[in-house]
């Protein structure tokens, strides 16, 4: 701004001296009135003397003021013309007033890069301080002006309030950056913690898998091996003994394959590689009776009685037959395993307005309240004093729950330690379309 003011003042000076010289060229000898007109043509020139080179004695003097005053703000300046010299006094304040118009059109205003001018810019009498310095509640920058306005300067002032707010303030920026960094660190910490927790859970599961499953695998394997070796070497075995060993081997093989199936199914379902559950139309009644009758002799051989209670009106459902059969079998298996003297099992099939309900009740040892919330967790097994006799890997109920969930249903448990347990599988009812065939089926059976 100071440089622009300087340029503006220089061109004003050039304008007035050019004005005089044009007059001078038109005249033989400039007279008082010419000089008078010249000083009137500009508002900041106060008085002037014209000294012709060839005759200094005939110089003329003109002034706007009644008498000559040596006001401190009046400065003098002179310029050479073709025929002489013009020396004039001028009012610096008036020249400044012209310059102030320049200051008002500040170059910083509305810059295209979005910067906003926040400095107060004005012309001042030069202070001893120049350049950038702290002043009062802000920063000032004073640039001195060149002659003819030497002794004056352009002063730009920015309040600290501006510096102290907004994005351009380094303090605010560093505060924001620290805040963002802290937030990111916290998020990172949380994610790392969550990852570690997940990792820990996986490790625990793996530990449980190795502890439970390997034990469960080893026992039947050694029994099978022992049985096979006895059969091979035992030439002196009676037919009855041989039969018993064969039965034992077969039982262990069945147990083993049941266990392996459970482990694999749970793993598959956990990784959502559901061996594409095959939903087909299934008559729940038919499914329940067929599972129970298939395993009835085995159940009886354990000393148990099964009571079936079936609602004839249960409609045809779209289920994965094998999966639901496995769920039911796991529940029956548990009812047998976790019963003591009262060896009776009840299997109920009924329906509510929203669900088809499959229930397996026993009068066994029941489940302690603190264990109830865990029994569906993989590898969870309640602590028994006689763990040896109740074999299992803690996966049966996990699988049952997964199967029911993949049919859109849920599992409910009621249990009282010492009195028995009831596991209820609630499958959402298929929307009534299958009502007809079932009644048809029932009628057909009645007729038969
Ligand atoms: P597993 O039978 O192989 O231990 P499950 O997942 O089938 O595994 O069952 C988990 C646990 O739930 C069992 O260890 C047992 O403590 C408890 N449980 C399951 N069914 C019954 C039941 N009918 N009566 C009492 N406890 C049961």
Number of E-state strands: 15
Query: Radius of gyration, Cα only, in angstroms?
Result: 54 Å
Structure ligands? adenosine-5'-diphosphate
Structure class: alpha+beta
What is the N-to-C succession of helices and strands? HHEEEEHEEEEHHHEHEEHEEHHEEH
Largest sheet: 5 strands, mixed
Poorly predicted runs: 433-448
Strand content: 15-25%
Our measurement of the CA-to-CA distance between the termini, rounded to an integer number of angstroms, reads 113 Å
Helicity, as a percent range = 40-55%
State the shape: rod-shaped
- How do the strands line up in the largest sheet? 10-12-13-15-14
In round numbers, the mean pLDDT is 83
- The number of helical segments is 11
Explain the overall architecture.
The chain has 11 helices and 15 strands. The protein has helices spanning 2-26, 32-40, 92-104, 160-163, 170-233, 239-270, 284-301, 321-337, 369-372, 396-406, 435-447, and strands spanning 45-52, 60-63, 74-80, 84-91, 120-125, 131-135, 138-144, 152-159, 279-282, 305-310, 317-320, 344-351, 355-362, 410-416, 420-428. The strands form 4 sheets. The protein has a 5-stranded mixed beta sheet, with helices on one face. It has a 4-stranded antiparallel beta sheet with strand order 2-1-4-3. A 4-stranded antiparallel beta sheet has the order 5-8-7-6. The longest helix has 64 residues, at 170-233. The protein starts with a helix and ends with a helix. Residues 433-448 have low confidence and may be disordered. Bound molecules: adenosine-5'-diphosphate. Adenosine-5'-diphosphate (ADP) binds at residues 334-335, 337-338, 362, 364-367, 375, 380-382, 392-398, 421.
